[in-house]
Amino acid sequence: MANKPSIPKGTRDFTPQEMARRNYIFDTIRSVFRLYGFQQIETPAMENLSTLMGKYGEEGDKLLFKILNSGDWKQGITGEQFLNSSIPQLTNKVSEKGLRYDLTVPFARFVVQNREKIQFPFKRYQIQPVWRADRPQRGRYREFYQCDVDVIGTDSLLSELELIQIVEEVYRRLGIRVCLHLNNRKILAGIAEVIGAPDKLTDITVAIDKLDKIGLDNVNQELREKGLSDKSIERLQPILAMSGSNEDKLRTIAEVLAASETGRKGVEETKSVLELCEQTGVALNIELDLTLARGLNYYTGAIFEVKALDVEMGSITGGGRYDNLTGIFGMPGVSGVGISFGADRIYDVLNQLDLYPQTSQEQTQVLFAHFGEAERAYCLKWAKQLREAGINTEVYPEICKIKKQMNYADQKQIPFVAIAGGDEMQNDTVMLKNMQTGEQEEVDTTTLIKNIRILRI
Amino acid sequence: MANKPSIPKGTRDFTPQEMARRNYIFDTIRSVFRLYGFQQIETPAMENLSTLMGKYGEEGDKLLFKILNSGDWKQGITGEQFLNSSIPQLTNKVSEKGLRYDLTVPFARFVVQNREKIQFPFKRYQIQPVWRADRPQRGRYREFYQCDVDVIGTDSLLSELELIQIVEEVYRRLGIRVCLHLNNRKILAGIAEVIGAPDKLTDITVAIDKLDKIGLDNVNQELREKGLSDKSIERLQPILAMSGSNEDKLRTIAEVLAASETGRKGVEETKSVLELCEQTGVALNIELDLTLARGLNYYTGAIFEVKALDVEMGSITGGGRYDNLTGIFGMPGVSGVGISFGADRIYDVLNQLDLYPQTSQEQTQVLFAHFGEAERAYCLKWAKQLREAGINTEVYPEICKIKKQMNYADQKQIPFVAIAGGDEMQNDTVMLKNMQTGEQEEVDTTTLIKNIRILRI
Question: What is the pTM of this model?
Answer without folding.
Answer: 0.94
